[in-house]
Structures are given as C-alpha cells and as structure tokens.
Design brief:
Pdz3 Domain, mainly beta, six-stranded antiparallel β-sheet, globular
Length: 399
C-alpha cells in the first residue's frame, strides 16, 4: 500500500470555494531528516497575516526571503530559488495531485535555513515546477512540518507573533487545554482528534493545516464514513469541477455542502460551522482557527494546545448558491448548489460580472487573492455567458 504525503501547496481551501491540493507518494524516502543542533532556543518572529498561512522572513546564505509556515506540507522552495541555490538533489519522487494525475518532482537538500536566529540544516525540500501560486503571494517557499518536527510552534494572532522553541516551560501552557498530537510517519503532519456533534457524535483525526485558509473542510472519505450517523447536516449536493490541483482542474464529481452543528477542540465549542467536502483523504482544521484563539503545536512532546478567546462561538451564516473556478484569465461557474438555479445557471458558464464589477478578464493571482467575491452582500446579480455565447443575468441570494 502506498504511503501518501501531502505536497507543495497543502490543501489551500479559499472561502470562495477553490480547493488546491497535492499529495505525493514514496515507498522509501522520508522527509523527516535534518534539523537544528541548537538547544534551549527561544525566538519570537513577527508574521504577516494574509488570511492564509502566516508569512515570515527567513535567511538563506545571508539573504532574506519570504516563506509561509504550512503545517500541512513539507518544506518547499520555488524553482527560482532552486536555480539560485543549486542544492543537492536527494531524490525524484512520483507526485500525485489531488485529482489523481501523476508526475515526478525533485526533493533537494536545503543545506541551511535560519528562522529567527535558529539554524536548521539538511532539510529535505520539495521543488514544484509551477510558480503561479508562489508568484501570486510573492513567497519563496514553505516552512513545513518535517522541519518543525522537533520544535514547539506557538501562534498568537493578537500579537501577530510566532514563538519557536524547544522548551515548553518557556510558554505559559495550560495542560487542561491540550490534547494528544499525532504526527504522520513520513513528514510529521500534525493530526488532532476533533469531536463532532450532530444528531449523533463522533471523532475524526483531523489535520491542523495552516496551509488551509478555511476553518474546517471534510474529506469525502470521512463524510462517507459518517453519513449514516448524521453527524453533519447536508445542505446541498452538487456535481462539477470542485478542485484545482498541481496538474490542472479537477474532474466532475459529486460534492456536498454541509453545516456542522457543533465541533469541539480542547473544550472550545464551535457551533453552526459551514463546510464543504473535499476530494482529498484528509479533513482539515485550517488557519482560521488562529482567529479564535492561541494555538501551540508541540511537535516535540506530541501535544496540541488551543486557548480560545471565547469558550463558545456561533458561526451561523448564509451562503451563496454558486462557487467559481478560474481558467485562462476568466472565471467560470464551478458548482451550483441550488436545484432550482440549475435551470438558469450551468457549470462552465463564464462569469462576466458580479453586480457592477467586471470579471471578464481577471488574472489567476487576482482571483486567488480575492477571498470573498461577495463581501458584505446578501444578494448579487451574476452576468453570465453560456458556452454557446448567450448572455444572461441571474440574481442569487444568500441562504
């Protein structure tokens, strides 16, 4: 059986419904190599909040670079940085993207990288070919869990600082707000047990993934396993291209829009959480969790801490009945979630405008960085062009 390891852009799930995933497989190679020889280290690092993974500055060969901390991915550098550094190639491994397509990418030895004064050496690092995502965010790579696996990482959105240490006593941690942490064998992705309560209750080993922009995403695998137990409320079912992965857009497949009546992390309660299923094998708690409390990932001692700003949060809100996907500097209907609307809107209709804002020509970067095309709205009018060239206007409402 293959061992699957999540790849270069994690499972970026934007609020607009765009999912980007990549997993890679390798029978022998492990990314859990290298590290730091420093002991008793403690450093505070400012981070930039872009509504996704925290962005920090690192130093390589005396030069400063921008990296995202992505707990759901291995260490990664761009092709441009690879060409500049010319690191040793450790292996070339088959990479499966989230849609099942396969290719091979290089894993290299990142000889040295300094984060907040802590020097890490000989870290296996993936080099993806496609630069679009990195170019959009103007980042040079990811700090992944394989590099952090012997450290403790403390995220505080109130101070916008990350603390990196190897001594838990350096942090004021409350053991009552902790749970066991499980690390994947090949690259140390951090998994925590989350309690879900609906008509019935259940638990799922969920990846804490700062490379996921949402709060919660449920894998189809876990949805299928819990469907009969009615832990989650199904709001709608649709079929379409629900994901954009390393090698292109996804195939048409059935997906579900859900409401999670309640889930609990370390005693903190989240109610009425909106979510969608994803084609990947892993359910995720994403970087939005940082908005609701202080998170500490103690890789070294296998503990996960969450200190909530409020013990209970109700996140009930309506959702618009369509989602979008970009292609060739255009935007298309990706999913239609309202059965009645399917008579007026079809997958593959081009979105020319939302209200009075034109989307007839929009770059991939502009689309990716627009986390909510409907911000502040409960009603919008879509101007659409069908595949045969007909123009139509269709009003949609948040439900």
């Amino acid at each position: 059986m293959r061992n699957y390891m999540k790849g270069w852009i994690g499972s970026l799930v934007l609020l607009l419904g765009l999912s980007v995933t990549c997993v890679y497989s390798q029978e022998v190679f492990t990314a859990n190599q290298g590290g730091t020889s420093q002991k008793n280290y403690y450093t505070e690092i400012d981070y930039e909040n872009i509504g996704w993974a925290p962005i920090i500055k690192v130093t390589i060969n005396g030069k400063e670079y921008r990296f995202a901390i992505d707990t759901g991915a291995p260490n990664t550098i761009t092709k441009a940085l690879f060409d500049l550094l010319k690191p040793k190639i450790l292996s070339k491994v088959p990479i499966w993207d989230g849609n099942g397509s396969v290719d091979s990418l290089n894993i290299v030895n990142l000889n040295e990288i300094t984060v907040g004064g802590v020097v890490f050496n000989d870290i296996p690092t993936v080099v993806p070919r496609n630069p679009v995502f990195f170019d959009c965010l103007k980042i040079d790579g990811f700090i992944g869990s394989n590099m952090l696996r012997n450290s403790i990482v403390h995220f505080s959105s109130k101070t916008q600082k990350i603390i990196l240490t190897d001594q838990p006593d350096n942090l004021n941690l409350n053991q009552k707000q902790s749970t066991d942490l499980f690390l994947s064998p090949n690259q140390s992705e951090p998994f925590v047990t989350v309690i879900f309560i609906g008509k019935n209750a259940g638990t799922i080993g969920t990846l804490f993934d700062t490379g996921s922009a949402g709060l919660f995403a449920l894998s189809l695998l876990h949805f299928t396993g819990t469907e009969k137990a009615e832990v989650f409320n199904v709001l709608a079912k649709s079929k379409g291209r629900n994901s954009m992965a390393l090698y292109g857009t996804g195939i048409d497949m059935a997906q579900y829009r859900l409401r999670v009546p309640e889930f609990r992390i370390n005693g903190a309660v989240f109610k009425n959480v909106s979510a969608s299923t994803t084609p990947g094998e892993q359910s995720t708690i994403g970087s939005q969790l940082l908005n609701y409390g202080i998170v500490t990932v103690d890789y070294k001692n296998r503990k996960f801490y969450f200190e909530p700003f409020e013990t209970s949060v109700d996140l009930l809100e309506g959702m618009f009945p369509v989602t979008f996907i970009p292609k060739d500097n255009k935007v298309f209907i990706e999913m239609v979630w309202d059965e009645q609307l399917k008579e007026k809107i079809s997958v593959n209709d081009q979105v020319l405008a939302i209200d009075d804002i034109s989307y007839a020509n929009i770059s991939m970067c502009d689309f990716l960085l627009k986390t909510d095309l409907y911000e502040g709205k409960d009603r919008s009018v879509l101007t659409l062009k069908t595949p045969d060239g007909k123009i139509k206007k269709v009003p949609i409402n948040k439900k």
